[in-house]
Amino acid sequence: MSTAPELVVDVQGVSKRFGGIHAVERASCNLHAGEVVGLLGHNGAGKSTLIKVLSGVYPPDDGHIIVHGQEHRFNTPREARAAGIETIHQTLALAENLDAPSNLFLGRELLTPWRTLDADRMEHEARQVIQRLNPNFTDLRKPVRAMSGGQRQTVAIARALYFNARILIMDEPCAALGPAETRMVLDTIARLKEQGIGIFLISHDMADVFEVCDRATVMKNGQVVDTVNIPDVTQDDVLGMIILGQKPKAKAA
């Protein structure tokens, strides 16, 4: 008898206000291990604020955040990372002049017993985790500035996974990428799902959402419109939720 995947994140009635502005109001959503949940909505819908609450940038004003069965109130991104949540920002925050191993261990370098940089071990460790994500990515020593967009995404994701992230928040990972690079990133997301990583995916590309997401949570005006199973809806249904704030009509049996 198979068991249901673990519920890794449960956001319950979270609100965040800035003065008189309700950026997020009583928002609820959840995420299971090995699942991708699209977080969708127009700019200003509240999804970025909700993600910043979940990743420790903003403390919530109300509500509960439960991670792996334990309630948390994150006051800093460091606290969110300690709970296993990593955010892959659209800007990626990589050092352009450094190679993949140096970026992966930036600020957390591995040292030899003589307290010098252990470059060989860092390259070995980086190669191990990057090969899990993209077996075709073999030239780790070139600087990030010479890498493709898909390879940059792989380095950023590898950095999160090496330091034991089990929950990823990916902010527009395919933005400004060509078809081949987008394919690389979507394939990487598929591999992460197979490894039991839970992913919140922010994306405006409906085709990408319908390819890799299991469910979608749509926000409008700071509130959650609904969460739907992707196989049960059409792209037009989801667009109606985003634009009009309407739940999709029940399909006839």
Task: Compile the SSE list and pairings.
Elements: E1 7-18, E2 21-32, E3 36-40, H1 47-54, E4 62-67, E5 70-72, H2 77-82, E6 85-88, H3 100-104, H4 119-133, H5 149-162, E7 167-171, H6 179-194, E8 198-202, H7 206-212, E9 215-220, E10 223-229, H8 235-244
Parallel strand pairs: 3-8, 3-9, 6-7, 7-8
Antiparallel strand pairs: 1-2, 1-4, 4-5, 9-10
Helix pairs in contact: 4-5, 5-6
Describe the structure.
The chain is of the alpha/beta class. It has a domain at 7-93 and 164-244: Rossmann fold. The chain is built from eight helices and ten strands. Strands 6-7-8-3-9-10 form a six-stranded mixed beta sheet, with helices on both faces. The longest helix has 16 residues, at 179-194. The chain is globular, with a radius of gyration of 19 Å. The model has no long low-confidence stretch (mean pLDDT 91).
Write out key terms for the chains shown.
Rossmann fold, alpha/beta, 253 residues, single chain, 8 helices, globular
Strand arrangement across the biggest beta sheet: 6-7-8-3-9-10
User: What is the tally of helical segments?
Assistant: 8
The secondary-structure element order is: EEEHEEHEHHHEHEHEEH
**Low-confidence blocks of residues:** none
Q: Compute the gyration radius: what is it? A: 19 Å
Calculate the terminal CA-CA distance, rounded to whole Å: 29 Å
How many β-strand runs?
10
Q: Approximately what portion of the residues adopt beta-strand conformation?
A: 25-35%
